[in-house]
């Protein structure tokens, strides 16, 4: 029986604290400004991808969360696969005839997220990071994760930051070919083990403007965007790296909130205006400022991407009070079980059912009382996670493909 | 019987199309940038004020909408009255003993808006314009409305623009004493008679940040605000005056929408962020862009001040289709009579009850269908008005004070 050439990996989601918004080259996906993100734990949010190469396959095929996609339809996907193949082909040339000609064989790609798409979390970052990491493992590419981040970048800009764990900077670079536009780790997750994150999945009616279309409209029409790129972001990149190096949460939090607000400000300054946050998003931001006032220090920071969901960073000792407040003010939807609304992965509560019923800290309890409760289901679920590592190569037993190279019957591994 | 020294005036509301936000001198109320507004008709939105001076009064007293206010409590009010008195005192000096010493007598001030405070419309502009105009009439001051706008300005910045009708520019000025920070008419209302406005009163829960506090926080914390002041507003002031001179509605509308969006963008870029628009406000803005797309030209423009209410400018021929669309998508609240929700002052509809039931223009009807209906009462009322004139001196018969100089029993003249 012929050997199987296959690799299975998982890759993380990342949430920017200095936002990427605007391309200077839409094909190579070169950004107008550098950005910085926190990689989240793959225990709670990740994409698993299996890639297999075989001379017997009729052509490249891709399955996403169980449904087959048209590989030819996505130029970004084709670019990412072609770039990885090019790196493999170079290896094969160096090896003369000594290497298996994997670069010439079609691939089957099967990819699944461990979080429901319904959560409205962007999966393109973890998805392209998983694809590129799987191809790199399959092709035994010698490049570092940082070098490979260039390949993930051509699939989806923010995917380059998911190629590394911990705290990650995406340097905008200046080269026309994008060779210096790549991700580098600023600090490993072990550097700041207390850092944790909450993802609040916010209900929303309206269809959001796609970030790909939205960011270019901002570049073209916002009168304030150039100032953000020229002076604001460079200063914040430096200040944020300092805050992380010194584990200065107050500084980290203030820059995070200010940059999220400014990203949404330039969206609003776009013509026609773009708005991703809704009234629930804004209420959460207001509650975070009120929480900080109640505890007398900057203990939590919100950030919002191109949608209404909130991500809140806080240190482990402050998480219980924060979750108590949020779950009180944003009650669980009637149709959702307590453990689905807030799975409590770190065992903060006696029982899932007790979440949202009491706020222990007096100052925060007074705030909860004063704020009152929003309609149940305004926040659909709260995902509590930590800072995580980069892409992981998994064992063949975790392959998503069967012996024929087709997707296995899916066992749901959602949380 | 001794002669009565009294004057009664009415003054208009104005809605900025280039926004005033930020003071360079909070005491004299000198702005960081020039602004430009449209004065709205006093038939629908105005403040009426009667001022009487008498040596028999024990001291200055003020009644606002029937309730007495503490004159000493407001420095701005004291400043405005003192400044007007100073101008009168100068006159009396010139006249030697020949003038009645009104500047030395206490005044009673009675002021009423013809629109419910519940409408959430800022009444400080029309209020201070009415107060200063009434004092100017009582004191027989020779200064022009533009010169008197400096006096209104020390009461409330935007009040200086309500001292003139039509299209009004408030020049920021550069002098430290504020002598060159005053309002001037850019064009009379007769210059562009087709221009009309809709005020959509939007329901809102949360208490907004006061504009006085909010604008200074923006000046101090927004990283983008200085760019708006330095480069954006000066260019827009020139372009807006050109658009008005040429009656170029498309240009007028685009600048109006962009400047409203940028004002709210710098509010969001403030730390902590300030947001005045809510989901209903944003839905209205989106609907205006969709309306323009449906009719194939820029036929309507929204603008928002420091609250969720929308003001929409459009030319008379487009108003019916616009009201049909808005009243369809934002149905009348159950507890409001049709004529209170949309009084239809220009007789666009067969009957008040027919408003919101049909959209005639096919492209707009398709848009209404596609948009669907928001919860009834999201918009509480629609005020339809035109461009208006400046403060009017009214007859003694319209005095708000009785023979004793106290407020008459109020006959409600709200619409």
TrEMBL record, chains A, B:
<dbReference type="InterPro" id="IPR014721">
    <property type="entry name" value="Ribsml_uS5_D2-typ_fold_subgr"/>
</dbReference>
<dbReference type="InterPro" id="IPR053859">
    <property type="entry name" value="MVD-like_N"/>
</dbReference>
<dbReference type="InterPro" id="IPR029765">
    <property type="entry name" value="Mev_diP_decarb"/>
</dbReference>
<keyword id="KW-0443">Lipid metabolism</keyword>
<keyword id="KW-1207">Sterol metabolism</keyword>
<protein>
    <recommendedName>
        <fullName>Diphosphomevalonate decarboxylase</fullName>
        <ecNumber>4.1.1.33</ecNumber>
    </recommendedName>
</protein>
<dbReference type="InterPro" id="IPR020568">
    <property type="entry name" value="Ribosomal_Su5_D2-typ_SF"/>
</dbReference>
<dbReference type="GO" id="GO:0019287">
    <property type="term" value="P:isopentenyl diphosphate biosynthetic process, mevalonate pathway"/>
</dbReference>
<keyword id="KW-0753">Steroid metabolism</keyword>
<dbReference type="GO" id="GO:0005829">
    <property type="term" value="C:cytosol"/>
</dbReference>
<dbReference type="GO" id="GO:0005524">
    <property type="term" value="F:ATP binding"/>
</dbReference>
<dbReference type="GO" id="GO:0016126">
    <property type="term" value="P:sterol biosynthetic process"/>
</dbReference>
<keyword id="KW-0444">Lipid biosynthesis</keyword>
<comment type="pathway">
    <text>Isoprenoid biosynthesis; isopentenyl diphosphate biosynthesis via mevalonate pathway; isopentenyl diphosphate from (R)-mevalonate: step 3/3.</text>
</comment>
<keyword id="KW-0756">Sterol biosynthesis</keyword>
<keyword id="KW-0456">Lyase</keyword>
<comment type="similarity">
    <text>Belongs to the diphosphomevalonate decarboxylase family.</text>
</comment>
<dbReference type="Pfam" id="PF22700">
    <property type="entry name" value="MVD-like_N"/>
</dbReference>
<feature type="domain" description="Mvd1 C-terminal">
    <location>
        <begin position="197"/>
        <end position="394"/>
    </location>
</feature>
<dbReference type="InterPro" id="IPR036554">
    <property type="entry name" value="GHMP_kinase_C_sf"/>
</dbReference>
<dbReference type="InterPro" id="IPR005935">
    <property type="entry name" value="Mev_decarb"/>
</dbReference>
<dbReference type="GO" id="GO:0004163">
    <property type="term" value="F:diphosphomevalonate decarboxylase activity"/>
</dbReference>
<feature type="domain" description="Diphosphomevalonate decarboxylase-like N-terminal">
    <location>
        <begin position="11"/>
        <end position="183"/>
    </location>
</feature>
<keyword id="KW-0752">Steroid biosynthesis</keyword>
<keyword id="KW-0067">ATP-binding</keyword>
<keyword id="KW-0547">Nucleotide-binding</keyword>
<dbReference type="InterPro" id="IPR041431">
    <property type="entry name" value="Mvd1_C"/>
</dbReference>
<dbReference type="Pfam" id="PF18376">
    <property type="entry name" value="MDD_C"/>
</dbReference>
């Amino acid at each position: 029986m012929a050997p199987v050439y296959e690799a299975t990996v998982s890759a993380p989601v990342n949430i920017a604290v200095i936002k990427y918004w605007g391309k200077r080259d839409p094909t190579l996906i070169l950004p107008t400004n550098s950005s910085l993100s926190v990689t989240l734990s793959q225990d709670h949010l990740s994409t698993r991808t299996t890639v297999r190469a075989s001379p017997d396959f009729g052509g490249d095929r891709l399955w996403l969360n169980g449904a087959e996609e048209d590989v030819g339809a996505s130029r970004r996907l084709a670019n990412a696969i072609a770039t990885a193949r090019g790196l493999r082909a170079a290896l094969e040339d160096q090896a003369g005839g000594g290497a298996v000609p994997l670069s010439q064989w079609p691939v089957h790609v099967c990819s699944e997220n461990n979080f429901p798409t319904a959560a409205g979390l962007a999966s393109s970052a973890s998805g392209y990071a998983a694809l590129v990491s799987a191809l790199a493992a399959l092709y035994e590419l010698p490049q570092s994760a940082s070098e490979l981040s260039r390949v993930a970048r051509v699939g989806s800009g923010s995917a380059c930051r998911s190629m590394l764990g911990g705290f990650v900077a995406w340097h905008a670079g200046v080269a026309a070919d994008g060779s210096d536009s790549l991700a580098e780790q600023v600090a490993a997750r072990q550097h700041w083990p207390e850092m944790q994150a909450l993802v609040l999945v916010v209900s929303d009616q309206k269809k959001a403007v796609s970030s790909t279309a939205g960011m270019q409209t901002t570049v073209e029409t916002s009168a304030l965007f150039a100032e953000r790129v020229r002076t604001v972001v460079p200063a914040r990149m430096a200040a944020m790296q300092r805050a992380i190096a010194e584990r200065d949460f107050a500084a980290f939090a203030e820059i995070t909130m200010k940059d999220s607000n400014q990203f949404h400000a330039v969206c609003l300054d776009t013509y026609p205006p773009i708005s991703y946050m809704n009234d629930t998003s804004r209420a959460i931001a207001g509650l975070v400022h009120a929480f900080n006032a109640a505890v007398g220090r900057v203990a939590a920071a919100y950030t919002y991407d191109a949608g209404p969901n909130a991500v809140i960073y806080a240190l482990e000792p402050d998480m219980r009070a924060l979750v108590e407040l949020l779950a009180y003010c944003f009650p669980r939807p009637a149709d959702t079980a307590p453990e689905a609304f807030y799975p409590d992965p770190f065992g903060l509560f006696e029982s899932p059912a007790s979440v949202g019923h009491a706020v222990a800290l007096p100052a925060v309890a007074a705030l909860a009382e004063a704020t009152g409760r929003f309609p149940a289901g305004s926040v659909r679920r709260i995902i509590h996670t930590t800072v995580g590592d980069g892409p992981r190569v998994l064992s063949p037993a975790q392959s998503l493909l069967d012996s024929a190279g087709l997707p296995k019957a899916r066992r749901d591994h959602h949380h």
